[in-house]
Amino acid sequence: MKRTSKKQKPFWERAYKGHALWLGKAKLGKVTLAEKDRYTWEAAGRAGEAADLEKAKKAVELAVLMADKQLDLFR
After folding, report:
1. Strand bridging mode 11-15 / 18-23
2. Global pTM?
3. Which residues lie closer than 8 Å to 44 by C-beta, 6 or more apart?
4. Of the candidates 26, 11, 18, the residue with the CA atom closest to the CA atom of residue 61
């Protein structure tokens, strides 16, 4: 028998002028269209800009991944 993983995976959801990264009911990050051919992203207390939607999505995924791996300074 093959075992399946019960762990949830984050998924991208398309929205008006942007995309959001969700894990269940928790929003992990978002990418919005700022100008023509310019995207802004926010995730895990970080923000930035990218010229391409795929690069902005990768930046959000990397910020979320780094937030999980890095220890909190004040806890």
Report:
1. antiparallel
2. 0.82
3. 28, 29, 63, 64, 66, 67
4. 11
